[in-house]
Amino acid sequence: MSFKYLEKLFQDFTELLDDNEEYNVIIEVDKEANKKSFTAHSTVLRYRSPYFKNENNIKIIIKPNISSQAFEIILKFIYVGIVNVENVDIKTIYELMIAAKELEFEELSKEIESHLIDTKATWIRTHFSFVYQSIFKINKFKDLENFCNNIIAKHPNLIFGSEDFVSLPESALVSILKRDDLKVDESDIWDYVIKWGIARIPDLPIELKKWSNDNFLILKITLQQCLPHIRYFHISNANIMDKVKPYRKILDEQLWDDLIQYLLLPDRPIKSIILPARSISISELPSRENKPFSTLINEEHALKVSSWIDFKSTPYFHETCLINFNSRDGFAPKTFWDMCHGYANTIAILKVEGTEILGGYNPLQWNNLSLRGKRHGRWMETNDSFIFHYNIQNSIHSRIKCTLLGNV
Fold it and tell me: Are 250 and 219 in contact (CB under 8 A)?
């Protein structure tokens, strides 16, 4: 027979965590404005993580890169093995994942990484540039990297259109360039790579005609990991001459000769390796203009509506197009019906001035025949439509509970 006193053990270690007398280690975390000190016991720290074995005999540990909120959660995990993030803001959860990885709590870090991917996709999407850049600086969160790269393949403007694109780590940019399914025209990829490289070289002349051979050489060295992943032979002839030729000095001589030969005599063999075209055709590419998503709802709202459409618990993005915009097309009912005629899977959104946003989803096809007095207009059934409501604090959506008839 065995006797277990786990509850008492838990209580004792909780009290040990709060002990302000017998500690022998002080841990200072966070930056100056939010700096906070925690006390701990070296024996407990060393047995809980190999990281602290390297800190043996050190009485003060200083970690300004770890937030006080994240470390407080980790310290409780060290002593009592519990992590509760139910009421913790998502940014702190993200910081907790990074701190756990740094302090070599691998299981905890992996658990939080999965939690963020499975349940916090909206936050990742709306803070995408921050997340993407930080995980590549650490380069230890492969699942999150893959998750983000899959998003970038479909929505490249999240990175290429961001204000801090030029500060993207080289490893992150190379990872993107390797994607066969990247939805960007190859000549635009060339433009982005050149922009990224130039931004990393101070004091370059603004006018290209004033560049020296040394300037081109520095750019070539800066981009040496990126240039091999550009699909040069899938750039149009016009863009080869207009975009690539001005920077031909950063390319290997053999590659440039092969490009010119391929442009003039495409049937002749060349020595350079021709990488396959990316799998998305130019006709399917999204606009490169970095316009606001909407004047009525933000991208986080759109993510939630997308998940409601497909009954998903995790928010994600649907490709959309604008059919009717009252401020542009007018408010006449006939205009609305004529422009929406024949479309299915549509979302209608309106804003009550100064208060709330209302909307609805119609999976059925709009039919303007009934509006014109035609007999072909008919009542149709659906269980998949819903209405929704947003205010500043929260969102509500309501599905129908029984089949409704609607004349669409």
Answer: yes
What phi and psi values does residue 387 have, to the nearest 5 degrees?
-115, 155
* Ramachandran quadrant class, 38 (left: phi over 0; alpha: psi -120 to 50; beta: rest): beta
The DSSP bridge pattern shows strands 379-382 and 404-407 to be antiparallel
Instruction: Tell me if 389 sits within 8 A of 356, measured CB to CB.
Output: yes
Distance in Å from the first CA to the final CA of the chain: 72
Amino acid at 103: L
Strands (E), 321-385: 346-351, 357-362, 379-382
Residue with tokens 């349940």: 119
Q: Which pLDDT tens digit goes with each residue over 56-106? A: 566 889 999 999 999 999 999 998 888 999 889 999 999 999 999 999 999
- The strand pair at 386-390 and 357-362 is best described as antiparallel
Tokens of 172: 């992150």
Tell me, what DSSP letter sits at residue 234?
G
Which residues of the chain register pLDDT less than 50?
A: 281-292, 373-376, 392, 404-408
The C-alpha atoms of residue 166 and residue 176 are separated, in whole angstroms, by: 14
Query: What torsion, rounded to 10 degrees, do the Cα atoms 12, 14, 17, 22 define?
Result: -20
Q: CA 67 to CA 74: how far, in whole Å?
A: 11
**Cα dihedral 226, 227, 232, 235 sign:** positive
**Domains by residue range for the chain, with CATH:** 6-207 (3.30.710.10), 299-407 (no CATH)
Supply the DSSP symbol for 241: I
Which helix (H) or strand (E) is 72 found in, with range?
A: helix 68-80
Place of tokens 């519990």: 82
Instruction: Output the pTM of the full model.
Output: 0.62
Packing angle of the helix pair 128-138, 142-154 (nearest 10 deg):
140
Structure-token pair, residue 301: 């709202």
**90-102 and 106-119 helices cross at what angle (nearest 10)?**
150
CB-neighbour burial class of residue 218 (10 A; exposed 0-12, middle 13-18, buried 19+): middle
Q: Are strands 60-63 and 25-29 parallel, antiparallel or unpaired?
A: parallel
pLDDT tens per residue across span 98-130: 999 999 999 999 999 999 998 888 888 878 888
